């Protein structure tokens, strides 16, 4: 129970990585606020957590709208008295030749993957700055915010921006007892990614070959670090962008 009595918000908690982090946080004793646009999915995950004896609340949010994130933070604070952990996980991918990327698609990706992270940090910090206990923020970025991949202009630019925001805000709020860190995953086998693999649209063999550890990541590979960064055991860590990618971003040989 490493997160006993903590209150956490997880954006993008309706599926994939966010859903798994939310369930794991609840197992570690946290009260979890699940946030995304899919009310029904969130409600069923919240029920599952409650049925297992945990505390969870489902709230809809669109991370592209600052007032929507602000409302989630305000509701969390009014229901549970404070906010200890903010996970800015909601995100979309976008793969398209850069010369043809439409302005509206570029904008949609940046609004979700970069602006949404900033608005989430901002809303969380406003609450955390009002608490003596401060808090911690974890941004889920990507190894593609550290290294480049063709046809992912909006995604790479957003994730690189999220990594820089992580460092900048960590420095800005360090003296105010707010820690900000990022997890930068490599390819992770969520339901969505598995679906793409099953359709033969992801070159799994080439990805495994390119990865020093020789495999695609599983969602469970992210949960330990997500708990550590949220717990008091990482109290001297802030401004860190941590790749969890089987060595992909470290590798620069043939
Ligand atoms: P996923 O299964 O597609 O889940 C994405 C989540 O984001 C969903 O819960 C979705 O919920 C939410 N979301 C999207 N747009 C939103 C918006 N405007 N407002 C609120 N919620 C929104 O993706 P995932 O693979 O778990 O990815 C989660 C994060 O990890 C993303 O930031 C992604 O870039 C990052 N990541 C993933 C991988 C990977 O291989 N899976 C690798 C590196 C980084 P609703 O549709 O219900 O709103």
TrEMBL record:
Top-rank taxon, per record: Bacteria
Pfam families found in the cross-reference section: adh_short_C2
Domain annotation Ketoreductase: ranges: 6-146
Stored PROSITE patterns: ADH_SHORT
GO MF annotations in UniProt: oxidoreductase activity, acting on the CH-OH group of donors, NAD or NADP as acceptor
Family annotation (InterPro entries): KR_dom, NAD(P)-bd_dom_sf, Sc_DH/Rdtase_CS, SDR_fam
Alphabetical list of PANTHER family matching this protein: SHORT-CHAIN DEHYDROGENASE_REDUCTASE, SHORT-CHAIN DEHYDROGENASES/REDUCTASES FAMILY MEMBER
Family recorded in the similarity comment: Belongs to the short-chain dehydrogenases/reductases (SDR) family.
Entries under NCBIfam families matching the protein: PRK07231.1
Protein name: Ketoreductase domain-containing protein
Organism: Desulfomonile tiedjei (strain ATCC 49306 / DSM 6799 / DCB-1)
């Amino acid at each position: 129970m490493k997160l006993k009595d903590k209150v956490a918000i997880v954006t993008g908690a309706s599926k994939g990585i966010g859903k798994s982090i939310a369930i794991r946080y609840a197992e570690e004793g946290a009260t979890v606020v699940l946030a995304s646009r899919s009310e029904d999915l969130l409600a069923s995950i919240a029920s599952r957590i409650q049925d297992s004896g945990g505390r969870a609340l489902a709230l809809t949010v669109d991370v592209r709208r600052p007032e929507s994130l602000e409302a989630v933070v305000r509701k969390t604070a009014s229901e549970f008295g404070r906010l200890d952990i903010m996970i800015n996980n909601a995100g979309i991918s976008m793969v398209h030749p850069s010369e043809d990327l439409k302005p509206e698609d570029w904008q949609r990706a940046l609004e979700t993957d970069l602006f949404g992270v900033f608005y989430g940090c901002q809303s969380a910090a406003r609450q955390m700055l009002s608490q003596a206990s401060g808090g911690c923020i974890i941004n889920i970025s990507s190894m593609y915010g550290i290294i480049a991949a063709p046809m992912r202009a909006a995604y790479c630019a957003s994730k690189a921006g999220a990594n820089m925001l992580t460092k900048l805000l960590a420095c800005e709020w360090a003296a105010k007892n707010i820690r900000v860190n990022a997890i930068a995953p490599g390819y992770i086998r969520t339901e969505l990614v598995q679906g793409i693999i099953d359709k033969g649209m992801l070159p799994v063999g080439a990805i495994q070959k390119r990865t020093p550890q020789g495999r695609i990541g599983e969602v469970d590979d992210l949960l330990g670090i997500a708990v550590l960064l949220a717990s008091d055991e990482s109290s001297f860590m802030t401004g860190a962008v941590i790749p969890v990618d089987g060595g992909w971003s470290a590798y620069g040989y043939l």
